[in-house]
Amino acid sequence: MPNLYLTLAAQRKALVDVLAGVRGIGVVYDYRRVIRTENDIRSMLVPDSSVDGTINSWMVYPSPTNTTVTERGPGHVGIGVKGGGNDFTTFQWQIDGYYGIEDAKESEKTFHDLCFAIVEEFNAQGLISLPGLTHQLPADINEFGFISLAGLTLCHFGKIGIGLTGRTRSM
Fold this sequence. Notes:
Elements: H1 8-20, E1 27-29, H2 38-45, E2 56-62, E3 68-78, E4 81-100, H3 107-124, E5 133-136, E6 140-149, E7 153-169
Parallel strand pairs: 1-2
Antiparallel strand pairs: 2-4, 3-4, 4-7, 5-7, 6-7
């Protein structure tokens, strides 16, 4: 019997799988990494395949606001008793992107194109391949600009948001 419930592990995996399939994508993590040192920048944010050491990294994590929004349907067993129910939950996810700045190569344009390619990849699919998914909200670029990593390196930064809805409890 297929899994009818939307799990957190399955969502992370599905989001990472889609992200990793986008042309030009670098290192992809299924959680937010903490960057404290210059060595962290090199070891975590620069893909092994990079010939020039350019930062190109993406992190998938739960949105810090409205992380989950659940709608409850009828069908619970009773007061003070677990069981039954008909719940659908929308899970809000964020994808942070970091990309090295190289003004001579117009890296901002390259990074913006890459962010939009990610949005388009998610939005091109009615539903990504994920057991229990019943509805997928459109992906959007929520932030685009610069960020300082560990107070050492300035790089391009983008934040993409997407919501996934599915059954989390059934009668």
